[in-house]
Amino acid sequence: MHISSSWRAVAVTAALTLAGSSLAGAGYSSGHRDSEWVGTWATAVTHGNASGSTNLGLTDQSVRLVVRPTVGGDRIRIRLSNIYGEKTVTVGAATVAKSNKATPELSDIDPTTLRTLTFNGAGTASMVKGSELLSDPVNLRLGNLDDLVVSLYFPENTGPTTFHGSSIQDNFVGPSNLVTQPGGAAYTLTRRCCWFFLSGVDVETDKADGSIVVLGDSITDGTASTFNANNRWPDQLAERLIASADKRDKVPSVLNAGLAGSRLNHEGSEPSDNGAFPGFNEVGVNSLARLNEDVFAQTGVRTVITELGVNDIWMSDDSAAEIIGALRQVNAQVKERGLRSLVTTITPFEGIGGTDSWTPAKEATRQAVNSYLRSSKEFGGVLDFDKVLRDPAAPSKLNPAYDSGDHIHPNDAGYQAMAASVPLDLVR
């Protein structure tokens, strides 16, 4: 039923079978008979910005990227993306390892877990413009919610990076090839913004129960949550799923495809109508254009949760009909692929800064969309985040207990309340 959502993994497996024994030494064995590959961590990627470091790219530099996979497994592989690049990118070396929990430095790795990554059996690889790169599997046992550190070396200028611009996680950049260094001191630059070129991590496990992909905006991306704490609501949903499972149970992974500023009907580079947002490449393409890369290409996807629409209201003053039409189209395409399609209501934003960012007319649009979603029978389920986060005394505003202070993004407690409200039987 879900073969179409796993086309990448199936295609790779088929190609390697046909290739015969030449790649056997690279670790492409079938593994345990009941094991399967599933995405355990992912992020949405975009084009480098029009200026700054993501435009200049990386030259003779290493990056050390910290992620937290959701479900564990016996083997892992990573996915790199140059889909928004402007030229071929050379990966000079790559490693994975677990974080060193004995030190406070997030850039330090546990050297006993260090694994060299290869690509088709080679230690270096090229990603041509617009392409992706899947590593060979490596044996590395990951537990549920274990931190993973991916280190990549780029010997030649990459040009504008394909990257995720709101990691809410410290990542690190340093000169020359540092991918095998246990300590992170040589990574002299801390970047609080970005995961560079890394788009996903897969695990092979006999506990796989598919993946849940959350297609969202900054509220899914975790804007205003605590840095380095994994308090985004999809993170906390994964924690609930794992905590509630019996040891014998299979647990779905949760893949966060949130992208700060994402809109259903507009490009990220498109300025807002009220002038409060100038437009940036890192906000990405319109959400319908993101489906093939950010959702359908994920490994083992079975459920899709769509959390979108608030930016179309406050930035672009779209009508309820325009927003509903786009959400219906997302739903139709998700269901056409045999996947479960869930949707969330649009949360309050009165008080957000900027002239005319919130108006009574925009609030009426939000209410109209939410009313439609609550009554619609088209979706596989509705997560009523508006009900969870709104102020009972002023429903057009966030509950002060959940307001990060900007009046649109929840704080850690708000993200926790969102995750706690999700019926687990609806996403298992």
Automatic annotation (TrEMBL):
What keywords would UniProt list here?
Signal
PANTHER family according to UniProt: GDSL-LIKE LIPASE/ACYLHYDROLASE, PUTATIVE (AFU_ORTHOLOGUE AFUA_2G00820)-RELATED, GDSL-LIKE LIPASE_ACYLHYDROLASE, PUTATIVE (AFU_ORTHOLOGUE AFUA_2G00820)-RELATED
Q: Name one Pfam family in it.
A: Lipase_GDSL_2
Question: Signal sequence: where?
Answer: 1-24
Q: Where is the SGNH hydrolase-type esterase domain?
A: 214-417
Q: Which organism is it from?
A: Kribbella steppae
At the top level of its lineage, which domain of life is listed?
Answer: Bacteria
InterPro entries xrefs: GDSL_Rv0518-like (IPR053140), SGNH_hydro (IPR013830), SGNH_hydro_sf (IPR036514)
Q: From the Swiss-Prot or TrEMBL record, give the protein name.
A: Lysophospholipase L1-like esterase
